[in-house]
Write a structure and sequence with these properties.
Two copies of one chain form a homodimer.
Chain A: H1 5-35, H2 42-49, H3 53-59, H4 63-83, H5 92-105, H6 109-121, H7 130-153, H8 163-183, H9 190-205
The structure holds a DNA duplex (18 and 18 nucleotides).
Amino acid sequence: MSVPPRYRAKSRVDVSGEESRAKAVAVATELFALTGFKGTSVAAVAAKTGLSQSGLLHHFPSKAVLLTAVLEERDRQDGEFLAGSAGPPLGWAAFDALAALVARNSARPHLVGLFVRLAAEATEPAHPAHAWVREHYSGLQRWLAAAVRSGQEDGEIAADAPVGSIVRTTIAVIDGLQQQWLLQPDEVSMTAEFEAFTGTLRARWAR
Amino acid sequence: MSVPPRYRAKSRVDVSGEESRAKAVAVATELFALTGFKGTSVAAVAAKTGLSQSGLLHHFPSKAVLLTAVLEERDRQDGEFLAGSAGPPLGWAAFDALAALVARNSARPHLVGLFVRLAAEATEPAHPAHAWVREHYSGLQRWLAAAVRSGQEDGEIAADAPVGSIVRTTIAVIDGLQQQWLLQPDEVSMTAEFEAFTGTLRARWAR
DNA sequence: GTCTATAGAGTGATAGAC
DNA sequence: GTCTATCACTCTATAGAC
């Protein structure tokens, strides 16, 4: 029961369009990572995608729309990774999941560079990604806070552990390590440092 | 034994030049903080300084030179603050000095924004401030590592404390807290979070 | 869906008068 | 030391042909 040829042909045209779009997102991710959002021109993304500037702007009517496509794709991938196959990790397992994400990022300096540069650029309220970066952080905080509270209910984490403080400091350590690692990739091990930090957390708050 | 009038007059002209220069550095600091280095035009700095673009470029032959002037001024001020009046603080006193710097920064969101945005932009090797940011971090690491080692020699800090790890994580916490504070100024207290963190360090490594 | 061509604004930097 | 005027370039976005 195969699809009639003429529909296949039409589908093939659509797929070509989808492929240009997907390739553009991948290229934009790489270039925004290398030179930041403001530092990357639409023309550069188009050239590396193999399109003219206008060809690219057919898919993304403005540079800001292209940026949101890049960010949504990254959040989608990281969300999948953090959620795990057996539902969201709770208690200390959430810190293990973060450690796994840090280890994974240690092999992707471009993506880390993109995030560090963009998160900093987008602290400016007028930046096109400002809403995204605010939601990104508060979402991460909510996710980790829920995991910690769940660990407290299970008796795995001390009931008097300061949830908000642990959440904010943990996220701060990840961000700060990324910054130092980008500058000193051979001297800083994000994985080792983050695991040393979570070890300290466990030593103090595990029950 | 006063200086002859004609030298005073000449001096007065020089002072006027110095004032334009100093004002330009202050304005550039503020604008780079608000919109990043790449996001700030020389024309904007000139306008807010009260000079034409060329008038500004008389003092700083290029935008990159203006940037280094801004960064050197900030490092000079922070270095003075951290060094203290009685020489560089050693042992746990170094963490107190950092906490004081964090508290001071909590009243200067523009300066924090400048640093966060610029440090991120400048992780790119081709950025005009790349050399500065690398030296800034390794200098800070050296300073704090020396203080910790001194504390170990004095028996104030455990001899088996992992110096490098403590240093990198402490700097990471400061950087990461700045990022979150810029996005959520009313929900995050950099001072409280940093002091909670150093409290954890002391609980584990104080002797 | 992709192209060429171009509008229209903004960029960093320079030349030369005062 | 500061100005006006201008150069050569890059940027995002649009119009319209194919």
